[in-house]
């Protein structure tokens, strides 16, 4: 047998012996018919011995259990210590006066409170236990006072015994409970019930008085019927008030479809996936009733005030984030709020994981775009330093020989066209004109490069805010691709370019020409534009017909 088992057996045995000893004076007292009320009173104390045995069975070191075992021996102590106090032999004839002088109800209250105070109420649960014990003990005192005035000594004795057994049961319930309601909630329930009954009774009385004065038959029946109906109608209103109070204190407990729809409204218009973190925190706050809930990504715990509560978010053994909140009570959330948060944690952890993956994907896209821009810069350098000078030299040689060989005029024009195309290709690869952030000016320079060597370009740029660098490059290249295709493939005479800012911070780019249209071929240029638009969260569409071709790009 282990040490804990030996301690457990000793505690239970001691409590059992104390209970038996407490029963003995009361049972012997019934043999004296002169005053059985003293015996009845003494039979209430052993109830605390039974409670002590149950508590010591759960925890052999329970100080409350030991104190209750001592309370079970109060009848024996009265029998043994009575002669020392009175100086005379304590008989059952004197015992009744002894109990009355002792004051059983105050003793019950005092000993119960002192026994509970052995554990010192250092936290919220212990304070609630002590408060409920004092309330129940006060109710017992009131019941005993009423019994003594109404029923006499015998009724008081029976009420004392039953009250002490009830108090012992309450002590057991309080000692074993791991969750207790706040003290102000039961009075609220009582107030709602009383208000409902009073409302019904008041309406019933009014109807009865009116019916009696009007001479209607059966005023009592009419008043009673009105009282019942009014009470039944007022009860839902009282329950609604109670639900509103509890919802304000503890939150909804669960999320309804309406809550989810309200919280997630407008997410489709947001481009940053981290916005979901705020929405998830709002969901937890709505369900649990906490004033402020936050959610961050990463394996490290944030620095928060001491009274805040941290909940790690774990997916597949990896900590993906932390949920932390400020409880309304400095000692922490209520147990029902803890259960609500615990139920939502797996869902919130999946949201954090999804947002983390989305952020990582966005960073990867930016890295790819950055590497691509670096590669384009390298190609630009090669074209500028290699092919460009070579074409320029060839043009000079052809121009020098053209005076002696007129047939070289056509070759000179083709070389000039090739140099013009090369400039446009270089400008599309790395639009250096965007370095100062002036997208409208860069587009005007791009449209001006087609003057005299392509279709007439009409430009309409309306931007109400600065455009990010990546979006500006995408807009510039979309316009360049649309103008180049209109000149090379559509044979257009006029091209309209519009770049407009949309509601919500988006961009819409359209390049429309009056060319012959025809089938849309998704070559290298259009495919590259579509990939870039999708990487930025937008989309590219190209439509063609007899009236011309329209290229449209939408960016968030």
TrEMBL record:
Pfam families referenced in this protein's UniProt entry, alphabetically: HisKA_3 (PF07730)
Keyword Membrane among UniProt keywords: yes
Reaction catalysis annotation: ATP + protein L-histidine = ADP + protein N-phospho-L-histidine
Keywords recorded for this protein, A-Z: ATP-binding, Kinase, Membrane, Nucleotide-binding, Phosphoprotein, Transferase, Transmembrane, Transmembrane helix, Two-component regulatory system
Annotated source species: Paractinoplanes bogorensis
Domain of life where this protein originates: Bacteria
Key word Membrane present: yes
InterPro entries assigned to the protein according to its UniProt record, in alphabetical order: HATPase_C_sf, Sensor_HK_TwoCompSys, Sig_transdc_His_kin_sub3_dim/P
Transmembrane residue ranges: 12-31, 37-56, 68-86, 98-118, 130-151, 157-176, 188-211, 223-241
Name used for this protein in its record: histidine kinase
Listed EC numbers: 2.7.13.3
Stretches assigned to the Signal transduction histidine kinase subgroup 3 dimerisation and phosphoacceptor domain: 375-433
Gene3D superfamilies (alphabetical): 1.20.5.1930, Histidine kinase-like ATPase, C-terminal domain
